[in-house]
């Protein structure tokens, strides 16, 4: 079933989370000074998009539509709640706090430029956008001849311009080497070709280009391991990759002086972590829980304190003694057996890497979380439990394993449930009870 584009309604700028240590290292960015929102409106306006600059200068509303494929849309690889268009909206609202900014996500999985043309009127132009960003190529290079891709992009740009919208063309993001794992007919060479076509067409048509591929290649050259941590699977960036996408695109819309780093779009509010579960309880319906052993009973006990008349049904996911690849293979069951209302991933301490994770570790860990989510927008709650909830006290060895899992959870936009310092030696059930108590009422 085709999922309609997501529409983001205007809101006031949220508080910022500045990751100046671990996550700047993960993304390979040098720290920059945070920009004061009051000073943002005094910064030079973008010269590449003169109509946008005029609207900002006159404090008129700004509407941006992001057209693309699954990388643009909201799917499992970013956690099912937001992608780079949603993060871009946070950049723009922070950059222009005096303007009303709206961003519409018009990304659909599997789409090529031909699909984008077919739904352009309905999904893009109907919103009367002031700016349209276009990102295609990952599906085109497997199914569309280069000359057709170029012709389709040309028509997309022309039709958007005919509707008085300014356009930004985006190259595709980097991908993992298809020789390591199947790339679905894609190759690094084809990726380079389609990115080059996009750059050349942007120059020919006189539209700005956001060169995402160059950004990923820069990270890969400087720190290959950091590049790997931007990817959820073969071709899709995780939310950390989308943070890079949003920052690069924000520089095009806001001007090259915009400090995309270390600005990080605000984290999601805590109630989002239990949105589906709370909804089922509010409706008095049964709550279906799938939880890895041995945390299931503790989670259910904590949940029942808040579930009222709603029965809580637990399905235990046995993982004891299994390796990470074995757990990855079993994780395919979640979507087949679901929908559940709450899935709790609690990977065993012994299954996690104690040293620098290998490619296989990152791949399997990412896919355990990918498979624990719905394919598209998040349809059920997913929590990731730290190993320290079951193994106390936290040693140097277990800390390394915990950091690996924390990275994965952050990259998938999933809550990471760690043991609070105040309950350092308490039973795991107490830690779960405290977490549910804190977040249920928010």
Task: Describe the protein in words.
The protein is 41% helix and 12% strand. The strands form 2 sheets. The chain has a 6-stranded mixed β-sheet with strand order 1-3-2-4-5-6, sandwiched between helices. A 5-stranded parallel β-sheet has the order 8-7-9-10-11, sandwiched between helices. It contains 19 helices and 11 strands. It folds into 2 domains: 6-254, Rossmann fold (3-Layer(aba) Sandwich); 270-440, 3-Layer(aba) Sandwich (Rossmann fold), CATH 3.40.50. It is α/β, with parallel strands linked by helices and 442 residues long. The model is unreliable at 6-43 (pLDDT under 50).
Structural key phrases:
Rossmann fold, alpha/beta, 19 helices, five-stranded parallel beta sheet, 442 residues, six-stranded mixed beta sheet
Layout of secondary structure:
Layout: E1 6-7, H1 22-27, H2 37-40, H3 50-57, E2 62-68, H4 84-95, E3 101-107, H5 113-118, H6 120-123, E4 131-135, H7 140-143, H8 146-162, E5 166-170, H9 188-205, E6 209-210, H10 212-222, H11 224-228, H12 239-254, H13 275-282, E7 287-292, H14 296-304, E8 312-317, H15 324-330, H16 333-337, E9 342-345, H17 359-372, E10 381-385, H18 396-411, E11 416-417, H19 428-440
Parallel strand pairs: 2-3, 2-4, 4-5, 5-6, 7-8, 7-9, 9-10, 10-11
Antiparallel strand pairs: 1-3
């Amino acid at each position: 079933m085709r999922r309609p584009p997501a529409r983001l309604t205007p809101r006031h700028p949220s508080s910022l989370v500045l990751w100046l240590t671990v996550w700047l290292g993960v993304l390979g960015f040098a720290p920059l000074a945070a920009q004061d929102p009051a000073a943002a409106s005094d910064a030079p306006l973008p010269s590449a998009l003169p109509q946008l600059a005029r609207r900002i200068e006159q404090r008129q509303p700004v509407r941006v539509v992001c057209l693309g494929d699954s990388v643009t849309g909201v799917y499992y690889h970013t956690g099912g709640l937001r992608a780079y268009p949603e993060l871009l909206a946070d950049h723009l609202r922070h950059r222009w706090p005096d303007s009303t900014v709206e961003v519409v996500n018009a990304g659909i999985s599997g789409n090529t430029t031909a699909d984008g043309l077919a739904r352009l009127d309905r999904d893009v132009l109907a919103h009367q956008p002031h700016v349209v960003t276009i990102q295609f190529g990952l599906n085109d290079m497997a199914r569309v001849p280069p000359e057709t891709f170029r012709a389709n992009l040309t028509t997309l740009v022309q039709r958007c311009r005919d509707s008085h919208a300014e356009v930004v063309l985006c190259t595709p993001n980097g991908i993992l080497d298809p020789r390591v794992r199947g790339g679905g007919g894609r190759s690094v060479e084809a990726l380079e070709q389609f990115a080059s076509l996009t750059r050349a067409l942007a120059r020919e048509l006189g539209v700005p280009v956001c060169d995402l591929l160059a950004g990923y290649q820069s990270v890969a050259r400087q720190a290959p391991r950091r590049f790997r941590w931007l990817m959820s699977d073969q071709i899709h960036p995780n939310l950390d990759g989308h943070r890079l996408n949003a920052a690069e695109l924000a520089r095009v819309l806001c001007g090259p002086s915009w400090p995309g780093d270390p600005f990080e779009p605000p984290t999601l509010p805590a109630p989002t972590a239990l949105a589906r579960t709370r909804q089922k309880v509010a409706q008095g319906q049964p709550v279906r829980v799938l939880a890895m052993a041995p945390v299931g009973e503790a989670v259910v006990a904590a949940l029942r304190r808040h579930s009222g008349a709603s029965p809580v049904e637990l399905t235990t996911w046995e993982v004891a003694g299994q390796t990470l690849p074995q757990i990855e293979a079993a994780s395919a069951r979640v979507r087949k057996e679901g929908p559940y209302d709450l899935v709790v991933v609690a990977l065993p301490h012994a299954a996690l890497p104690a040293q620098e994770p290998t490619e296989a570790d990152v791949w399997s860990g990412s896919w355990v979380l990918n498979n624990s989510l719905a394919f598209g927008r998040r349809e059920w709650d997913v929590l990731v439990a730290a190993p320290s909830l079951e193994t106390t006290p936290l040693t140097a060895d277990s800390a390394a394993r915990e950091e690996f899992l924390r990275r994965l959870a952050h990259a998938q936009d999933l809550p990471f449930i760690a043991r609070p310092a105040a309950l350092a030696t308490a039973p795991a059930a107490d830690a779960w009870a405290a977490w549910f108590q804190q977040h249920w009422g928010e």
